[in-house]
Specification:
By secondary structure, the protein is of the alpha+beta class. Helix content is about 40%, strand content about 15%. The chain contains 22 helices and 19 strands. The strands form four sheets. It has a nine-stranded mixed β-sheet with strand order 12-11-13-15-16-10-17-19-18, sandwiched between helices. A five-stranded mixed β-sheet has the order 7-8-9-3-14, with helices on one face.
Amino acid sequence: MEKRSSKKTEPQGRGRARWIRLDNASKLFPATANLQDTKVFRVTAELNEAVDPEILQQALDAIMPRFPSFNVVLRRGVFWYYFEQSDLRCLVQPETEDLYEPLYTKGEKRLPFRVIYYGSRINAEIFHAVCDGAVAVAFIKALLGQYLLLSHPEKVEKEDIQYLFERSPASEKLNDSFQRYFKHSGVLKSKQAKPEKKKKRVRAWRYKGTKLTRHRANLIEGTMPIDAVLDAAHRYNTTLTVYISAIYSKALWEARRGDKPRPIILTIPVNLRPLFRSRTERNFFNVMRVNLPEPTAEEASSLCWWIKVIAEGLKDTLQPEKLASDSAGLMKLESNPALRIFPTGLKDFILRIAHRVSDSRHTTSISNVGQIDLPERFWPFVRSCHISVATRGISMTAISSVGIFAVSFISAFRENELQYRFFTTLQDEGVPIEITSNRNIITSEGGYENGDSAIVPPAEGISPAGATICPNCGCAIRGYKARCPLDNEPLYLSADARSDEARDVFPVAEQKMNRLLLTRLFAFISIAAMVISIMINYTLELPINLPVMTLLGIISTWASVGAVVIRRRQISKIVTWQVTILSLLMLVWDWMLGWQAWSLNYAIPITMLAAQATLYILARALNLDSGDYMIYLLLCALLGLLPLLFLIFGWVTIQLPSVICVGVSLLMIAGALIFQGGVIKHELTKRLHI
């Protein structure tokens, strides 16, 4: 797979890129993102024609100056993560991988977003640390408008897309609104507001199912006419958000029957921009929690009761004073001096634990992003828009555009009981539903569920418009599906569904290497080596303690390989970690073999010298930016002063290697401070958040 970003032709090596602190909400996402829950947004615009990748690239290049918060790379400092402005160019790519592929990997410089296409779909995937759903929608809206302007200049004029772009200065787009409104201004309180007692959060009921193994997410999208679903909501005298939340809550209660009667707690993200008149293009949201009361059997069967409960819960929770108080509390926690001095690794560990505890205190999340307001002359070109986000459980998102309301369920489970109950309820309410999914895709020669011998059509081409009615749920299933995504009912399709040109709405994702399996295999080999060494030591008389030597070899291998894997994308870190690990291992091996001081006399000084030379040569050969390696070169040089202790305390019998190592290290430190002092100071400021 080609990289999705490339460097422009500007000269590198200045080492003083502008850096930006992460906002309060963003600090959580780098710490808690993993291969399953990548914290990636996915916003989709589906056209009524095939996507032209060349025009899409031109459109992307044209709008990028309007989104300065996207032209960054995420870096890991000593105490906090931070963004560093970058000259990388995002390259449009065909979609071939699984949904929500990671956009942040430790040590790798890459843009925190990607633009991919498949068939008639334009997809923007964005790391949540960059922005929230409101900005993601603004981005796809601007990209779509620019694309239609370039692809249909005879029908779309420049004036038609002007209002699609937010008009605000770059400084306001990059503004940290959490700092502006909550750090020093205190908590907003009305004169009549009484201080509320904080309710103790309890463990919520969580949906349990069979975890996916070959996919990251089970995505089911349901589209319906906006007028039909609004009419259904108005029959109950309620809003669209309350209506769909009530149907989903009823489905959750029905799925919970037979399980522990823990409370059903919904989390709903709230865009704070309208409340505080902010125009930032970074994260600015809060999450409100709606704790649903326990219904009787009669109440649970009535949709009217669920609508009433949801409406009251939203009214009680959606209060500017309460949202401001919660946000100010989080800002106060971030500013705690005791927490600020914790290194990034320890903060990550604490945030992961807190995130897991928070996960156990809510059942699911519901997010209605609202409407993508497009000019009516765009409507003939656009079929629908969708939004979703990676999750470790199950969540529901919704968005409307061009007269279509799209609801997306994102799940980490194989079962689709909740989705089935939700969409069939809407069907019973008279709302026609069309379903698409990234699963059960028929492929030529490979059956379905991504057979290994599948022939996959290229990304260029138009997505299927036809649908097959499921005989069980009654929904229209769009695309080439072997079975209905909702109830797994077999579908009857024409013979051309298995042709080489047959294209589903989603691509057949390439299968990734099972890293967990490799780790388990390596662990099994290590245990087997230990068992064999014990057997040999027991049956044969050997001059050495074979099990202990084998254990040291296993520890050395795990430590060395682990350091390379963790820091594999940043050469300077690899060299620094390896020299530290090798020095410690050589000391241990020298001691285990009967102390002969070869580690202090020769091995450690020579390793320190080799590390400095290797790092400098690699930096020059690979044309690394000085800011990327200078700190680590300085650190290696400081480690190279350790042999000075060997000389002072008389630990070495052969002094020449230590003397040379100390002399070269002192020269390296002096040269770094004299010629690159400004770069070192700038890097320390970024990484230490000085």
